[in-house]
Amino acid sequence: MSKRVLIFDIPDEQEEYDTHVHGIDYYCVLWDFDQWLRAKIKYEDQEQISVQEVRDKLYEFLNEKDVSL
Fold it and tell me: Is 25:65 a contact under the CB 8 Å cutoff?
């Protein structure tokens, strides 16, 4: 078994640290967003969706996981 250790200089590298710690949350946001888009494509009229609605939904998923861009 191999182990890895990541070392961050806090507070200088706080953003990088947070990104690594919340990696699974970002993955879940992408998964949820993809599933939402898939449902839109499969079950709804695709021409009825606005860019603003898509952006709002992305930020909703980000807020649910307490992560940001």
Answer: yes
User: CA Rg, the chain, in Å?
Assistant: 17
Which of 19, 28, 21 shows the shortest CA–CA distance to 69? 19
Which pair of tokens denotes residue 2?
A: 């191999």
* Rounded Cα–Cα distance for residues 54 and 48 (Å): 11
Q: For the chain, which residues make up each domain, given as ranges?
A: 23-64
pLDDT in tens, 1-58: 999 999 999 999 999 998 899 999 999 999 999 999 999 988 887 777 889 999 999 9
Q: What is the pTM of this model?
A: 0.76
